[in-house]
Design a protein that fits this description.
Two copies of one chain form a homodimer. In chain A, 42% of the residues lie in helices and 20% in strands. Chain A is an alpha/beta fold. In chain A, α2 packs antiparallel against α5 and α10 packs across α11. The N and C termini of chain A lie far apart (59 Å). The interface between A and B is large, with 66 and 66 residues. β13 of chain A pairs parallel with β16 of chain B.
C-alpha cells in the first residue's frame, strides 16, 4: 500500500502542505467529508474486518494476550460505534473562525482574536484501531492534517482504515495528504516522527505510561501529555451522607480502570462515625478493597463491611485503576485540601458538602483540571462536558487543561484592520 | 543578602508554597501590593542607583561596551518609567476568576471554565534591570509567584530591586517567597533552574537568540519562546498608494531594531511601476538600504532614490533588525501569500489593499500570530492591543500566540456543580 511506504519526513511534509489548504476549507465541506468517511467505513467493512483478522491471527501467534487481542479486535458492531463517533463529530460546531475576543482600540484599529487550526497534529497510539478514525475525524473537523502512528500489532487494520478515510476525504474535497499513516510502529519511527519540528505542530500520545515515557525521551515537537488521575472524593462534615454514599460508590466502582475514577476517599472527622460503617459495607459489596488509615480501621464495624488493610503513604500516592480505595479521616477541610495538593495529580477532585463556604474554599483551594461539588469525578470527559468528543485529557497547565476537544486542537490569530494606520 | 544565598531548589519550593496562597489573594490586595512596590521603588531610589553604580563600574572595568552599559543603566527617570509601568499593571483588570465559558449540561450539572494562575513562573533575562520589576508586577497581578534569573552583570541592581519588591509585597499582604531571585547568572544556574519540574510551571526567556538557544538545550520545564519576526508588508494591486507609502515607511523605519518591524516589502506587479520609484526614494531618505529583486531594481528610477543591491534568497530569510529592506515584486496575491508562508516566521504580516476579496484571502491564507489589513506591523504589542502590558510576544502556536499578557500568564480549571450527580 502506497501509504505504508512513504518516508516519515515526506508524510509530514505532505500533511503540512495539506494543512495550508485545509485551514481554508468551509465547515460544510469538512462535515460532508466526515460523513463520506463514515459511509465508506460501512461500505468497506468487510475489507476492514479481513485486515483486522490478519492482525488478530498474528497477535494470537505472538501470544499478545487476551486483553490486547480484545482491544485490537474489530467487528461489525465496533465499526458501527466508530462510524457513529464520526457522525457525532460532524454534527459538532466548527471551532475554526470563532471570535474569541475583539475590540476597537482608541486609535480606531479593530482587533479580533479568532480561532484557527493548529496545522499538523500527530497522534501516537497503541493497540486500539478505533483511535485511527476517532483522532482523524477530530483533527479534520478542526481543520488540521493528521499523521497517525499506531502499534505494529494493528498495522493491517490501521492501513486499511487510513486508506478508506483518506480516499473518502479527498473524494469529498479535502486536500491530498490530510490523513497519513506512519509505516511501522517501532521506537525508531517514534523518534523520527517526534523530531519533525518543521512540519508538525503538536504530538498527542494516546496510551499507557510506557508510550508517554518513550515519547518524552525523544520528542522535540511540542507534546500534550495526559497524566494519570490520582483523584479524590472528600466528604465534608456537612455532607448529605446519602449523596456521599452514591457519589463515592460511583466515583470508585462504576468503571475503576479509567483516569477519572477516585483513588482516595477523604472523610471529615465529624462525618466519619456516621458515614464510614455503611460506606465501607457498600464498597465491600461492590468488591472494593479498602486501604484505611487508623481512624478508618477503627470505624469499620464488627465484622467490617469490607476487606480492610492498613494504609501507608504509598497508598496516598497510588493510582490503583482497580477496585481498591484508600480511605483517610481528616481533621478539617483545610487538611483535605492539603492532602489533595500534596498527593493529587491535578486531574479531578470532588467535595461533598452542604456548606456554601466549604464549596468556595474547595473550589479556590484545589488546583486541578476539574473540581467537583456534589458530583462524581467520573464526569471528566469531553462528551460529558458537552464538548462532543475528546482526543485525551490534559493535566498540563499550558494550552489545554482538562478534556482536549475541537477547540483545544486549534490555536488563534489576531486580525487587525485599519485604514492606513501607523504607529507613532 | 539573604535572597542571594538561597539554593535554586529552595527558592523554587518557596515560590511554589507562596503560589498556593497567592492564587486565593483578592484583586484589591494584589493591586495594593503593586502600588506598595511602586512607592518603595520611589522611596528607595537612592539605594537602587547606588547598587546600579556598582554594576556599571564593574561593567566598565570588564569593558562590556556602550550598548550594554546603556541597557544596564538606571537613573531617576528610568526608575520613574518602571514605577509607572507597575501602576499601569495595577490598573489592569484581574484575569483570575474570569469565566471563560460555561453551560448547564442536560443532566443539570453546571460547568464553568474559569481562569486561574499558572502557579510559579520563572523569567530569565539579560542586562536590563527594568525587566525585574516589569515581570514581577505582571506575574503577581496574575496571581503567580515569580523566580527571576537576570544577568550577572546586573547582579547588584537586581538584588536590590527584588529585595525592595519582595519586602513591599509581603508587607502589603502577599505571601513570603512570592518574588525570588536566583543568585548567579551563569549557565549552570540556568540549567538548574530550567529543570525544576516539580516546582516551576513555565519559563519565559526575555533576551536574544543566544539565551533562547541555551535554554532550549537544557530546559525540561515548559518554555514559551518568542521567535524572531521576519515580517512582511504586501502592497496589493488595489492598494491606496499614499497609505502604502506611509505604512511601509512606518513598518520599516520607525524602530527597525524590534521584532515587529518589517523586513520584506512585497509589491503586486500591477502596483509596482506606480509605487516603487517614490517608495524607494522615501525609504532612501530615511536611510534604508534596499535589497531588491530584478523587477525592483529596474523600477528604481534614474538616479535611484535609495541605495540598492540585488537580493538573493538569503534576503527573503533574513530578519535584519536594521535599516535594510528586501523588496520583491510578485505576480499575484497568491504569490505573496506563498512567499510569506515560505519565509515568514509567523509573527506579523500586513496587506495594503482596497479590495474586500483580497482582505479575506490574506486573512485566511496567512498563518501568523498577527495579520494586518491597512495597518503597520509595528502595532504587535500587548500595550497597543489594549492588553495593558506584555512579558513577551509568542510565535508559538500552543498556549499563547501573540503578545503574552496577564491572561496568557494563567491557566484554567473547570468547576462542576451538582446535587449528588453520578455517572450512568
Amino acid at each position: 500500500m502506497a501509504i505504508a511506504t512513504t518516508s516519515i519526513p515526506d508524510l509530514c511534509t505532505a500533511a503540512r502542505c495539506a494543512s495550508r489548504r485545509l485551514a481554508a476549507v468551509d465547515t460544510d465541506v469538512k462535515d460532508a467529508a466526515l460523513h463520506a468517511i463514515a459511509d465508506a467505513l460501512i461500505a468497506r467493512a468487510p475489507e476492514i474486518i479481513a485486515a483486522n483478522q490478519l492482525d488478530m491471527a498474528a497477535g494470537r501467534e505472538e501470544e499478545i494476550g487476551a486483553a490486547l487481542l480484545d482491544r485490537l479486535s474489530l467487528d461489525p458492531a465496533r465499526i458501527e460505534t466508530i462510524v457513529a463517533g464520526v457522525r457525532t463529530i460532524a454534527a459538532l460546531p466548527d471551532p475554526v473562525g470563532e471570535v474569541i475576543e475583539g475590540r476597537r482600540l482608541a486609535n480606531g484599529l479593530d482587533v479580533r482574536k479568532v480561532r484557527v487550526p493548529l496545522g499538523v497534529v500527530a497522534v501516537v497510539y497503541e493497540a486500539r484501531p478505533n483511535v485511527t478514525i476517532d483522532a482523524a475525524a477530530l483533527c479534520l473537523k478542526a481543520g488540521n492534517a493528521i499523521v497517525l502512528r499506531g502499534s505494529s500489532i494493528a498495522a493491517h487494520s490501521n492501513a486499511v482504515l487510513v486508506a478508506i478515510a483518506a480516499q473518502a476525504a479527498v473524494a469529498a474535497g479535502l486536500p491530498e495528504g490530510c490523513v497519513g499513516l506512519v509505516a511501522g510502529g517501532g521506537r525508531e519511527e517514534l523518534a523520527e516522527l517526534a523530531t519533525q519540528n518543521d512540519t508538525l505542530d503538536l504530538i498527542i500520545p494516546r496510551g499507557g505510561e510506557g508510550l508517554k515515557a518513550a515519547l518524552k525521551a525523544v520528542a522535540t515537537v511540542p507534546v500534550i501529555y495526559a497524566a494519570s488521575g490520582n483523584c479524590h472524593v472528600y466528604v465534608d462534615a456537612s455532607a448529605d451522607l446519602a449523596a456521599a454514599e452514591r457519589v463515592v460508590l460511583n466515583a470508585k466502582a462504576q468503571r475503576p480502570g479509567v483516569c477519572n475514577a477516585a483513588e482516595t476517599l477523604l472523610v471529615h472527622k465529624d462525618a466519619a462515625a456516621e458515614l464510614l460503617p455503611g460506606m465501607l459495607r457498600l464498597l465491600g459489596e461492590a468488591g472494593v478493597l479498602i486501604r484505611g488509615d487508623e481512624h478508618t480501621l477503627a470505624l469499620a464495624g464488627d465484622p467490617p463491611g469490607a476487606v480492610l488493610e492498613p494504609a501507608t503513604t504509598e497508598d496516598w500516592e497510588t493510582e490503583y485503576l482497580a477496585l481498591t480505595l484508600a480511605v483517610r479521616v481528616v481533621g478539617s477541610l483545610d487538611d483535605a485540601i492539603d492532602h489533595i495538593g500534596r498527593y493529587g495529580s491535578g486531574h479531578s477532585e470532588a467535595i461533598l458538602t452542604r456548606d456554601a463556604a466549604a464549596v468556595r474554599a474547595f473550589q479556590r483551594g484545589v488546583d486541578a483540571a476539574c473540581v467537583y461539588v456534589n458530583a462524581s469525578t467520573r464526569f471528566t470527559d469531553g462528551g460529558e462536558f458537552g464538548m462532543g468528543a475528546e482526543i485525551g485529557n490534559s493535566t498540563q497547565k499550558l494550552h489545554a487543561r482538562g478534556p482536549i476537544g475541537l477547540r483545544e486542537l486549534c490555536t488563534a490569530k489576531y486580525l487587525v484592520e485599519g485604514d492606513g494606520h501607523v504607529r507613532v
